[in-house]
Amino acid sequence: MGVRPASSGGRAGKLYESFLREGGVMQYYIKPLTFSSSQEKAEVDFVYRSNFSPDSLVTCNFSLLLPDTFRDLTATEAGFQTEEVVSLEEVQKLYADSGKSKYHVRYSAKMRYEEFLKLLTAKDVSFQFKAKEHSTNMSAPTKTERHIADLYQQLF
Q: Taken in order 130, 65, 81, 31, is the CA torsion positive or negative?
């Protein structure tokens, strides 16, 4: 399955950006998708290049906005729940910042391109992370589900 060339019309600018890289390779940045639960929020973005193979990796960056009580939280696992679990690999904390009542932490991880496609074609997607101290499952609001479907149609 190939990647379509960058589009200048429609919702492309709202959902993703594309950049021409050295050697004629296109790099795609999928703008943050929001997932939430009653107390937590996740914003997830993706970066991948058009010179992929089925074993290629997609970068998945995610920010978590959590109650301040989880200040020392470090994710041990993260992923997406679709019809099956889509796990993220190599989860690394980039930074953390504690605000007035919320704790903001940013991670970067990898996922296989094949798993990324499963995510974009799933009907019901949620984001989940686990730590020793806490785990949560955040659902995608209707807007995020619509954006995921639109991304698949526009990019593949």
A: negative
Q: DSSP assignment, residue 79?
A: E
CA distances from residue 46 to 58, 62, 69, 133 in whole angstroms, order as listed: 7, 9, 28, 27
92 contacts: CB under 8 Å, gap ≥ 6: 107, 108, 109
Specify the pLDDT at position 11.
Answer: 52
Question: How far is CA 128 from its chain centroid?
Answer: 11
Helix (H) or strand (E) holding 149: helix 142-155
Q: What is the pTM of this model?
A: 0.86
Q: Residue 130: what pLDDT?
A: 84
For 33-68, b/e burial (b = at least 16 CB within 10 A) is bebbeeebbbbbebbbbbebeeeebbebbbbbebee
3-state DSSP helix/strand/coil percent for the chain, to nearest 5? 20, 50, 30
